[in-house]
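Changelog entry: the PF03932 family protein CutC record was regenerated in this release. Current contents:
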Amino acid sequence: MLREICVENFTDIPRMIEAGANRIELNNDLGAGGTTPSFGVIKQSIKYAHQHQIPVVVMIRPRGGNFVYNDDEFTIMKQDLQVAAILGADGVALGCLTADKQLDKVKMTELCAMARLLKLDLVLHMAFDELSEDQQLELIPWLVEHDVTRILTHGGPLGTDILDNSVRLKKLISATDGKIEILPGGGITVENYERIALELGVTQVHGTKIVSMN
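Regenerated structure tokens:
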């Protein structure tokens, strides 16, 4: 079972790796839902994680709040994506929506092309969960076509129990036909991840409490 730890800053990374984390999603400001970490944090985190053969996915998000970005914010995202690649990231997590709650295919097409060129995995983060179930299912072929590696999803609003969303998550997993990974996250802990993974039939899970830090 691959356990991806969602982490803020560098501080706890050594202990998290020691506790069994298999992949890191690196953020700043998890209180705001995760934003792009600093150059120094990215560089040191990747250096340490790679010494322990642990891949790092860097959050590319210029601010908290919604996922509708203006031109300046989009430029920042593109520059941060390049920085993550230069510093050796294995992947980036990002997502852009339009004001009417659709995936912003114009911006996402450009970001997907950049990630592909820079040989980065691209993760569509929980912006995906703001889309309707029909939209999500319709989008999967588009995401496959644009080389999105995986979708991080709770299967519903973040305040809900992820097991209550298992029907929707199973539909998504089935619709991917193995062409794109579904990474369940949100409310998954060291106590329940095995049960959730078994219920959904997945081999990777994501969370801030996915390993025991005792």
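The chain has one domain: 2-207.
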